[in-house]
Amino acid sequence: MLGLMQHRELLLSSILDHAARYHGDGEVISIRDDRSVSRTTYAAISRRARRLATVLLGLGVRHGDRVATLAMNSDRHLELYYAISGIGAVYNTVNPRLAAADIAYIVDHAEDGVIFVDPGFVHILETIATQIAGVVRAVVVMGAESEMPASKLPDGVALLCYETLIAGTEEIAAWPSFDERSAAGLCYTSGTTGRPKGALYSHRSILIHTLMLCGGDVAGLRAVDRVMPMVPMFHVNAWGYPFGVPMSGGTLIMPGRHLDPVSVLTVMNREKVTIAAGVPTLWLNLLNHLRETDAKLETLERVLVGGAAMPRALIAAYQDLGMRVSHGWGMTESSSVATWGAPKPATALLDRDGRIDEIATQGRPVYGIDVRATDEHGSEVPWDGKTQGELSFRGHWVASAYYRMPETAIGDDGWFPTGDVGVVDAQGNIKLTDRTKDLIKSGGEWISSIDIENIAVGHPDVLEAAAIAIPDERWGERPMLIVVPRAGRTPTHESLRDFYRGKVASWSIPDRIEIVESIPHGATGKILKTELRKVYAK
Ligand code: AMP
């Protein structure tokens, strides 16, 4: 017997409809490339997205077709998320920081017939024009007529102006309804190994992820919050904030391409941001700027972080500034959040250090996701906070295969192998120790590169650190530490090694240390250990 409740498909258009009707004056604030500020509302975005739907249909976009975006966070990118998915097509967010060859590969593999592009990224399309000319029929520049570049695109690829198209058209009457399992968004992973692979999110998976994200022990989003996702919309739906913030009616602040600490601080204070989300590198650069200038974060209450391990010292610094730091773990293939840190009754009364230790874990699985850590025989490791296992997960918003790669379908057991290694404590908190490929095994013992890095950045002279395995005749591998000093500081090898004593086993202390001016970062802001290994692990 079926229940007697109304059935409504879980579609993304329902989020925008809700925001427009019940939070119509809710603001979306975008910083443009020239640093001018655009202020609009959910009601206006909803009307423009309906016009954009007419534009898309006019460009021949149909249910299931892929449409690329090559853009930073903005109100226009938000309109595109909703308009493209709203008519049943699929927005394919392309990362402009990838190598041109990878961008060409993605556009070709996804068969993006239309590309929407920020004015500042048109040059990327020009460099790959001949490779994508057979697939792409129109390029729409996300700006006004005055921002239109002189076309260097091949004949047969129309170059169109976003604002002109929207101005010259009518709204669709209502968003269509269709199967909630239909694809809505497509995001290719950064491709650290091999070709980029596409995670294809459905309306249902994104919508359920959004409901979870808004929860009190997760991002806890409210109508009175002013939220700035510094994580880009081209990477894993900006962790879901373009859906969660409108669903909650909060103010959305879109920082655009200016993510240097001076710009970030200026926008945070001027726009009275209360919650901001970003990778640890962004928070590290901002903290460094605060320390150098004595500037203050005037309104920020909550620091949301993920994408890489947030070092304990960085957590402590922001907590001591009076902000609440929340640390989550996930990946492109899990639509963003798999675990999130929040106290439980057993840990609610921890002292400062205990709280910081808890935040330094990646948190516990949220409802909707199951995580397990297994040993080399496939058995689950004990929840003792010590025994390492390979992490896999399953859930309502975990990929079952990559787009157009049927050979990648997940096996019968239904668990997605994350490639991450970690321990689980008695509360079910997961603490990542490594990526499988980044593990350091010395004399038969595992050394956590994340632990080695976390300790290094706690040293007063250190800005950023990376630990990698280097081959060693006697021990198999030994840890090597690569360090970027803070401005004006010159840490010695001895002081760095001393700093490890009492914090880790003596055989875990790196014997080789290099002090460098900078460490390479990938397209999503993570340290590129593959590059470091090429240089040092000979
Ligand atoms: P991506 O799919 O590019 O977002 O990368 C996902 C990977 O980033 C994960 O498999 C982890 O290795 C890493 N990652 C994400 N969040 C965290 C975190 N909080 N701590 C440590 N590593 C993380």
Describe the protein:
Helix content is 28%, strand content 25%. It is of the alpha/beta class and 538 residues long. Among the domains are: 13-258, ANL, N-terminal domain (Rossmann fold, 3-Layer(aba) Sandwich), CATH 3.40.50.12780; 440-536, 2-Layer Sandwich (GMP Synthetase, Chain A, domain 3), CATH 3.30.300.30. α1 (13-22) packs antiparallel against α2 (42-58) and α8 (203-214) crosses α9 (241-248). The site of adenosine monophosphate has 18 residues, from β14, β19 and β20.
**Overall pLDDT confidence:** 94
Structural class, from helix and strand content? alpha/beta
Please tally the β strands and state the result. Answer: 25
- Enumerate the spans where pLDDT stays under 50 for 5 or more consecutive residues: none
Q: How are the strands of the largest sheet arranged?
A: 2-1-11-10-12-13-14-15-16
Helix content: 25-40%
Ligand roster:
adenosine monophosphate
Measured distance between first and last alpha carbons: 65 Å
Architecture of the domain at 13-258, CATH level 2? Answer: 3-Layer(aba) Sandwich
Portion of residues in beta strands equals 15-25%
The CATH class of the domain at 13-258: Alpha Beta
Computed Rg: 23 Å
CATH superfamily of the domain at 13-258: ANL, N-terminal domain
**What general form does the structure show?**
globular
Number of helices: 16
CATH topology (fold) name of the domain at 13-258: Rossmann fold
Major sheet description: 9 strands, mixed
